[in-house]
Write a structure and sequence with these properties.
The protein is α+β, with helices and mostly antiparallel strands. The chain folds into 2 domains: about 80 residues, Glutaredoxin, CATH 3.40.30.10; about 120 residues, Glutathione S-transferase Yfyf (Class Pi), Chain A, domain 2, CATH 1.20.1050. About 50% of the residues lie in helices and about 5% in strands. Strands 2-1-3-4 form a 4-stranded mixed beta sheet, with helices on one face. α1 crosses α6, α4 packs antiparallel against α5 and α5 crosses α7. About 35% of the residues are buried. The model has no long low-confidence stretch (mean pLDDT about 95). Bound molecules: glutathione. Glutathione (GSH) binds next to α3.
Length: about 230
């Protein structure tokens, strides 16, 4: 699908955590974009022209296209600095970037790709039945990650420090995808549950809570701001 001429567009997939991180940054900075769902596994030639890596998200602003979610978020930070999503001081800025990588690399490979990959994407892409060993491994690993977040939140208001940053958006992007399929045990940590309730109630989160994936109904608490 082509965006209307001269509108900004984000080619995304609703349950892609990388797309969600960019959607949250765009919404927090009040940058309007047309959301265009891209079934990236169908490898549409127009999509591959926009991003030869064949991955979502891809952001189109005017006549330019941008790929790689963290590079996009940092570009948005440079071009739309208000509100800032990376702290000014070098230490906290480093910590925010470290945690974005933690979630997009480690959490994604140990948890999101295992649980979402098996439970959702196999069905959506038609690649067979879930591999229960992967599901078990993802379900085991998420406990450790929630405990790590609880430990961070024991010392800080937000994940990287005392202000909300891209680290919170990266984490919330992954957890919200998993929450859509009821794979987050919110009773494991009050600190993590409170943090998620805080971020989930931001106006920037609204479009994510309204996502609907045919064939997968979210649990009632998914869009409930009080859980
Ligand atoms: N490092 C990339 C990862 C993006 C990514 O892996 N997106 C997935 C969807 S969640 C994708 O498009 N995968 C297609 C592929 O790997 O071929 C980013 O941060 O944008």
């Amino acid at each position: 699908m082509q965006p209307e001429r001269s509108t900004n567009a984000l080619y995304h997939f609703p349950l892609s955590p990388f797309s969600r991180k960019v959607r949250l940054s765009l919404a927090e900075k009040k940058i309007e974009v047309q959301l265009i769902e891209e079934k990236y596994w169908e490898k549409d030639p127009d999509f591959l022209r926009r991003n030869p890596a064949g991955k979502v998200p891809v952001l189109r602003i005017g006549s330019r296209t941008y790929s790689e979610s963290s590079a996009i978020c940092e570009y948005l930070e440079d071009t739309y600095p208000d509100p800032p999503l990376l702290p000014r001081d070098a230490e906290t800025r480093y910590e925010a970037r470290r945690l974005v990588s933690w979630f997009d690399d480690k959490f994604h490979s140990e948890v999101t790709s295992k649980l979402m990959g098996e439970r959702v994407f196999r069905k959506v892409m038609g690649t067979g039945y879930p591999d229960s060993a992967n599901v078990k491994s993802g379900a085991r690993a998420i406990k450790y990650h929630i405990d790590y977040m609880a430990w961070l939140l024991d010392q800080r208001r937000w994940l990287a420090g005392d202000t909300m940053t891209l680290a919170d958006f990266a984490a919330a992007a992954h957890l919200s995808c998993l929450d859509y399929i009821s794979d987050v045990d919110w009773n494991r940590s009050d600190a993590v549950k409170d943090w998620y309730a805080k971020i989930k109630s931001r106006p920037a989160f609204r479009s994510i809570l309204a996502d609907q994936i045919p064939g997968f109904l979210p649990p009632a608490h998914y869009a409930d701001l009080d859980f």
